[in-house]
Amino acid sequence: MNRQNTTPHPFSWSAQIELGYQWVNNRTVPTLRRHQGPLRVQRHLYPEGPEVCQHILLHPPGGIAGGDTLSIYVSAGKNTSVQITNPGATRWYRSYYPSYQNTKLYIDDNAILEWLPQESIFFSGCRAYLDTVIKLGVDSRLITWDIFALGRPGSNELFTHGEVHQRFQIRSHLNNQLLWSERMKFLGGNILLHSPVGLSGYPIAGTLLANGAVSAKLLEACRNLPIEGYGGITQFPTGFIVARFLGQESEAARNWFIALWEILRPVLIGRSVCFPRIWNT
What is the pLDDT of residues 240-280, one digit of tens each? Predict the structure, then answer.
């Protein structure tokens, strides 16, 4: 990614976390939990039983200021099932200095990772760089979504200046083959934010992505779900299911993605939806 004027802020925070999981005695067991700075998880949660380990990723400052860097590494070992979410929105604050989030997710053979973060809010004037790389093993499963708000729609704050750079890649662990790649660049006040080929003036956008295959009937059920905004879902021949959202409220995006998750999860990973309790707080 292009990183210009990256002189660090003298008071910036650097945070890093590494999480690893292994399959031991028919149980998904956390075997690595290493952190540095204000980024961590606490209890190991098993709301669905011992096969699925759930972690709540905490960033106590509650927001990312100029010069901050978050580095997240997750390794779901063979046969494990891992679900990771966070307690609330991630806020990217206005700053002259750029801020970074680097995420690397590894899903070993026959493993499952549900990476389900809550929305990111990019304040006008922020300089945000996000880089996500996911590696898939043989017969592994991924369900993830990304919801972002440009500006603060609830406060009538538009994204008039600032920049957001985002790269998202999925690769095969076997040969590092690129399976999916997206790059996005949003500049405050840019015409593309209002153009029909961009965001059409909507401050909220989101993407849900999963690998696997579903029937045409189930895909049609997904398309018939009610939605407060605009959305569509497509199954690609490459083995990915992708849903897109545009709208006025992040809650509408979240509700639609959760409804899709309720339909897709039983088919793709063989389990009905179990909602993280943290989402209700």
Answer: 999 999 999 999 999 999 999 999 999 999 999 999 989 88
Beta strands in 37-155 (DSSP E): 52-56, 63-64, 69-76, 81-85, 90-92, 99-107, 112-116, 120-122, 127-136, 141-150
How far apart are the two ends of the chain, measured CA to CA in Å? Answer: 36
**H-helix or E-strand spanning residue 245:** strand 240-247
Task: Tell me the per-residue pLDDT of 173-206, one tens digit each, with 9 for 90 and over.
Answer: 989 999 999 999 999 999 989 999 889 999 999 9
* pLDDT score for 9: 57
| Residue 178 near residue 171 (C-beta atoms within 8 A) | yes
Q: State CA 185 to chain mean position distance.
A: 17
Residue whose token pair is 């600032």: 162
Q: Where are the domains of the chain?
A: 14-201
- Report the predicted TM-score, pTM, of the whole model to 2 decimal places: 0.94
Place of tokens 């996005």: 184
Which among 96, 146, 94 is positioned nearest to 120, based on CA atoms? 146
